[in-house]
């Protein structure tokens, strides 16, 4: 994780009366920058504090542990005209999840090593990436907050439906599910 955030300080009086719109954002995935323009929706993962039961002769006393568990998160996106957004995620999943030969494993690792800026990357560095969700002020490019996702890997790519039954040609879209080790919230 990066720099420490200043402690949260609640305000003494309510100063902001406007709600935040959920459609002013930009999602940036370091390993796949092409996906940024086509992202349509993102769901922030859940966070859960683990609880430990401390034995007692009468009842168990619940104590907070020192670990948090982060859920998965999904990104819905449009398929670009050259099919790169889908095929790059497909390639990434197949590269670490279902190689058919050792040559495919080596090819995946070599290509990923060329694309990241780490001099001597470990295998985990080649399989994972980081991502950022920028929450923007409406009608501006001013960043209000950043969600920084650490050690992101795709775990599922949803189905893709082609059809000729619609009168208007629909844009193809799909959803990818990611797991992460943790995420940080940074307020601007």
Describe the structure.
By secondary structure, this protein is α+β, with helices and mostly antiparallel strands. The protein has a single domain, classed as Pnp Oxidase, Chain A. The protein has helices at residues 35-38, 84-97, 102-115, 123-127; strands at residues 25-29, 39-43, 47-54, 61-70, 73-78, 129-136, 143-157, 173-179, 182-187. Strands 1, 2, 5, 6, 7, 8 and 9 form a 7-stranded antiparallel beta sheet that branches. Strand 3 (47-54) and strand 4 (61-70) form a beta hairpin.
Mean pLDDT across the residues is 83
Shape: globular
Oligomer: single chain
> Mind describing the biggest β-sheet?
7 strands, antiparallel
Element-level helix/strand string: EHEEEEHHHEEEE
Q: Strand pairing plus helix content: what structural class? A: alpha+beta
Integer-rounded radius of gyration: 21 Å
Number of helices: 4
Please identify the top-level CATH class. Answer: Mainly Beta
CATH architecture: Roll
Helix proportion of residues, in percent?
10-25%
The CATH topology comes to Pnp Oxidase, Chain A
Compute the number of structural domains.
1
Fraction in beta strands: 35-45%
